[in-house]
# Entry
Amino acid sequence: MNFDDTRGPRTPDDTDKPRVLKTCTKCKETKETSEFNRRRDADDGLQTWCRACTTEASRAYVKKKRAAANRSAGQKRRWEKEKGEEEQVVAAEEVLDETLTVNGEPVPVTHTGAADPVNSPDHYRTGGIECIDAMVQVFGDEAVRTYARINAFKYIWRHNYKGKPEEDLAKAAWYTRFANGDDPRKEVAK
# Structure
């Protein structure tokens, strides 16, 4: 097994040959060519940094990337927490009273900062109107009742898989009542 000195380890056949040395461009140390990784497109077939410098630079790069990822995740968590606190303050300050026609009957709509994930979720009450009320205004009663039946089916179908089965079944009951012309929000408003 005869390898050129620039290509691999010395073998018993070439012990009498002198070692070829190369200087690492990073640490500036002169080392044997066996201390350098191969690189096909280089003139001498070797990388310009020695293996030790390459390993050190690689580890530093990975450490820097991990620190940046952790820092980004931490910043995101802090931002979400601050955003949530701001939204709670805005929701507590906003109290909007309206009357809308739902299923042919007037329904008082009162928005407060109190969160009710079944009867009036905060994320459904943007812009001063509840999403389902806007849907009735745009699509009409019958289309929204059909939507409510489909949504009830969806909540029943996946209630065991989302982590809050009781809440999902309560939502299914809410949509079933709404689909049958009984607006559950009337009871909550009383």
